[in-house]
Write a structure and sequence with these properties.
single chain, 313 residues, alpha+beta, Immunoglobulin-like, 3 domains, 5-stranded mixed β-sheet, two-stranded antiparallel sheet, 12 helices, 14% strand, elongated
Length: 313
């Protein structure tokens, strides 16, 4: 069993406790709203744990001095993104991107916790959304710790990918920001989105259309996502190249360059170099583009190096 599990309401988790002969008899307890209680095991060590409502359950297994905790997040399948107040809050951020300050971010955090807490959404999901938007806030402030915030958001939200489009979208965006394009492409499968097109643009080979794991079939993300301005401009530049509007793409790349600090935006700087190489080539100057692609083959990110090498071939 993973340290964290996500289960649906109405699902029963079948567990088996295996212990070494001669050790202290194991004890399995579950912590719910009503308190902690012991779970009865069958003679073979089997336990059935039914889940009748959403929320977080904590399971603890002990034997003598050994104690092992587990966290179980219980969700309504495909319901999180459909909460009206939650959808309104997320759409308001996308429609009017905030000028983050500590005060405005605290207001957002309080609203988010109130909306999702009232609906019984697991705390892990709430923490993931808070970490993601805090990462955007810190990136806007040029605080290098934003990278750790995005990583934490991914760690929290990846458990909810089968149950929430916005969790899936944030995780795909994190992988894109980390230059893990092939992994991101699997999460973008079935989405005709700017993010999906950008992932394919940077992939050494298109992996869109393939997916693994338990996911619901959807044609697009149900909610918009607030993201870094430079990445939004990158998506527009890629669309411009796809539409053969090379001058527009070059102008957007110049704006992105002005807002990119390589010491902080290392991954983005590499993506920008690849974008500029593609724009140079598409402008009708493959001779000038050649050394740009060759230099990218030495990129510290293998995904960029592979994309450059594949493009040269």
């Amino acid at each position: 069993m993973e340290d964290i599990e996500v289960c649906e309401v109405g699902q029963t988790l079948d567990l088996a406790v295996v212990s070494t002969p001669g050790t202290a008899e194991p004890l399995v307890e579950i912590e719910e709203d009503s308190g902690r209680r012991e779970l009865k095991m069958s003679s073979s060590g089997g336990i059935k744990v039914p889940f009748k409502k959403t929320g977080t359950r904590r399971l603890q297994v002990s034997s003598g001095g050994y104690i092992k905790p587990y966290s179980i997040q219980v969700v309504e399948p495909v319901q999180i993104d459909q909460l009206p107040d939650f959808a309104k809050l997320i759409k308001s951020l996308a429609d009017n991107p905030p000028q983050w300050t500590e005060k405005t971010f605290e207001q957002f955090r309080v609203s988010l916790e109130a909306i999702l807490g009232k609906a019984g959404v697991p705390e892990l999901f709430v923490h993931g959304l808070i970490e993601y938007h805090l990462g955007l806030f810190q990136e806007e402030q040029r605080i290098p710790a934003f990278r750790e915030r995005f990583q934490a958001a991914y760690g929290f939200l990846r458990w909810f990918i089968p149950y929430s489009d916005i969790a899936r979208l944030i995780c795909a965006y994190y992988l894109y920001c980390a230059n893990e394009f092939e992994a991101a492409a699997k999460l973008c499968s079935g989405w005709e989105s700017r993010l999906g097109k950008a992932v394919v643009f940077y992939s050494k080979e298109s992996t869109a259309g393939t997916s693994t794991g338990k996911t619901h079939n959807r044609t697009k993300a149900g909610l918009p996502l607030l993201l870094a301005m430079t990445d939004a401009l990158t998506f527009q530049a890629i669309e411009a190249l796809n539409d053969d509007r090379v001058n527009d793409a070059a102008e957007l790349a110049a704006v992105i360059r002005r807002h990119t600090v390589p010491a902080i935006d290392r991954e983005r700087a590499e993506r920008l170099r690849f974008l500029e190489a593609r724009a140079t080539e598409q402008s009708g100057d493959p001779v000038a583009a050649q050394p740009l692609f060759e230099a990218l083959q030495e990129s510290p990110w293998q995904s960029i190096a592979s994309a450059a090498s594949n493009h040269l071939k």
